[in-house]
Amino acid sequence: MTWSQVADAAFELNAAELMDEIRPLFRQGIIDPSMTTLAEFEREAKRDRAISMRQHADRFHPITDTAQSISYWG
Predict the structure, then answer these.
(1) Could you tell me the pTM of the whole model?
(2) CA-CA distance, 21 to 30, in Å (whole number)?
(3) Mind listing the pLDDT tens digit of every residue in the chain (74 residues)?
(4) Which structural domain, as residue segments, surrounds residue 14?
(5) How far is CA 8 from the centre of its chain?
(6) Closest C-alpha among 6, 15, 10, 5 to residue 43
(7) Is 6 exposed, middle or buried (0-12, 13-18, 19+ CB in 10 A)?
(8) Is the residue at 68 inside a domain?
(9) Which of 15, 16, 60, 62 is the most buried (most CB within 10 A)?
């Protein structure tokens, strides 16, 4: 797992509490902005946490059939 992946996961959880740690990682080039930019993080951090969490949760659903969920791989 890379720092970019960790940051992307934090973005999905509303990263407001982690912005002091995330900003320097962007500035140092540790996080790849091609996935999510610092500006996107800043906007997300300002959003209402409950609304943000609800919207992100709507995009992710529990896996109930593993074979079906990875069938597009091959």
Answers:
(1) 0.66
(2) 12
(3) 688 888 888 888 888 888 999 999 999 999 999 888 999 989 988 888 888 778 777 777 788 999 988 998 87
(4) 3-61
(5) 3
(6) 15
(7) middle
(8) no
(9) 15
